[in-house]
Amino acid sequence: MVVGEQGRALNALTLPVAADSPSRRERQWSRYGAASVLTLGGLIVLAVSVGVAVTLGPADVSLVNVRDILLNHLGLAEIPVRVSEDAIVWQERLPRALVAAACGAGLGLCGAILQSLLRNPLADPFVLGVSSGASTGAVAVGMLGLGGSSLGLSGGAFLGALVAFGLVLLLARFASSGTSGVILAGVASTQLFSALTSLIMFAFADSDEARGVMFWLLGSLEGMRWNDVGLSTAVVGVGAIVCIASARSLDAFAFGEDVAASLGIPVARTRVLLLILTALLTATLVSIAGAVGFVGLVLPHAARLLFGQRHARVIPATIVLGAVFMVWVDAASRVAFAPTPLPVGVGTALVGVPVFVLLLLRRKGRA
Amino acid sequence: MTLKAQHVSWRRGGTLVVDGVTLQPAPGSTVGLLGPNGSGKSSLLRLLQGIAKPDSGTITLDDTDLALLRRREVAQTVASVTQHADTDVDIVVRDVVRLGRTPHRSPFGGELARDERIISEALEHVGLTAKADRLWHTLSGGERQRAHIARALAQEPRELLLDEPTNHLDIRHQLELLELVAALPVTAIVALHDLNLAAMFCDTVVVLQHGRVITAGPPAEVLTPELIADVYGVRAHVTRDDYTGRPTVTFQPGPPKGEVLRPLQASTSVRSA
């Protein structure tokens, strides 16, 4: 054995380090600085997007008027505006744009978490059977009249989503294998609840009812109110905080659960916590806005392509990208075939796929 | 003050894969786990790492039951490299090694200069400094293996568990890797297939068969033609290398002396007879 080799090895593992050297502070600052600047920039883009999106629609409202209306409602000014414009902006378009932002952020977040946790690039927020459970719940309430008027489509969808997710957890537990067990259980549950939904629609629905429910299932942000804004932003906010705190654990899942465990991650606890969190988040968003596809599948990939693989960046990036994306797609789907609205889920796929292809090409060019 | 196994047994899918194993490595020593495929080497390493819990017996770290420690506490002391740890994530080598710092950092704690230095040194140790910015999927099998070793080194372990770390490596990297492991001030438990590498670098070898410890001791005492015939079912010639003083194993074709050719399974009955 070469003595020099041994000495170097010993040094590597035992050298003491000065506690607060300047380079350490600098590095910390620069890393957080870069991430904060990006996040801040993203939030500004989001705010501008919401502002502009609100001006779009059959009734034109100028950006200046939007600003005046906002200032009035925030109690910062007393600018005279037309009552009809005020109603359109404050009661319809703004809450709608904000729910769109929350849905985009939340679904993107769930997708990012599930793709990492289940180590499957095709995972999306609906992989846990949540959306098909929600649709069964919604049709059960809407067509069979279960739960009476108190429950409503949203309530039914939320309960259905939880039942489906509960089934997934139960199946995955019986299967007792890791990530593939969860995915297989999700597939089984999705199929089961899709079949139940079809059965109910086939047996009980007339065509108008079916069309209404279908529209809702594809994702719709019609008639959003401020209470929807409050609920969706609250759950997305809580979800975002928990997920950003878990960023490092998610990084450690890259090489599978055994490696994560050997790196000190309490694998089972982390997995169950994040699965429950994403299921609750998805169930809430689906019950508000229907199953908006594509955002949760593709936006996390876009964030990774643009900002790298580390979750400390991927998570905030996905949240901001998802929110901005959804605001614009919703605005476009409102305006495109006006006065007939397009389900926002159709819009997300139509706009998102080309964007994603561009990103893939860019990546190929760089590699 | 080290990682110990006391009379541990583990039943996996109805088969007893680890059967009453006791292992008490001397601190700082390099211990080779030997034995044919399916003899329980990997399973024992899983137990020692605390990823699996034994059905009976205890694994202790510094005399505390491993099951009572938090995963993070274990990971600050014990690092491991398993087989077949792969990823589809587009991650660069340096970030793979950075994962090793996970147990030493809090969720919101920043990157420290010290972390960066440890990562660089770990890369240097396995000779991957020049490839630090390469993407994982562009690496060869041997480079991936070395990246995992660097990740384990970045964990600054006191106990290092390696499951066939020389797999996929060319001879030079096999030698360099084991030389490094033997030189590190850590207790290393290494599952190995190559008896000559075990003889060269291990202070102690432990021979497993059907989940049980058949024998243990310095390679020069343990690695005999009789043992090799018994455990592996092959004919071997063991000499002492004049230069290193370590045993050298040469294999010969055909069944072990005095035995007719028959399935490996039969060797147990010979031993217990």
UniProtKB/TrEMBL annotation, chain A:
It is found in: Cell membrane. GO terms for cellular component: plasma membrane. InterPro entries: ABC_BtuC-like, ABC_transptr_permease_BtuC. It comes from the Bacteria. The chain crosses the membrane at residues 32-56, 94-114, 126-147, 153-175, 182-205, 272-299, 311-329, 341-361. GO terms for molecular function: transmembrane transporter activity. It is a multi-pass membrane protein. GO terms for biological process: siderophore-iron import into cell. Belongs to the binding-protein-dependent transport system permease family. FecCD subfamily. This is ABC transporter permease. The lineage of its organism: Bacteria, Bacillati, Actinomycetota, Actinomycetes, Micrococcales.
From TrEMBL, chain B:
GO terms for molecular function: ATP binding; ATP hydrolysis activity. InterPro entries: AAA+_ATPase (IPR003593), ABC_transporter-like_ATP-bd (IPR003439), P-loop_NTPase (IPR027417). Residues 245-273 are annotated as: Disordered. CDD domains: ABC_Iron-Siderophores_B12_Hemin. Residues 3-235 form the ABC transporter domain. PANTHER family: ABC TRANSPORTER ATP-BINDING PROTEIN, HEMIN IMPORT ATP-BINDING PROTEIN HMUV. This is ABC transporter ATP-binding protein. It comes from Promicromonospora soli.
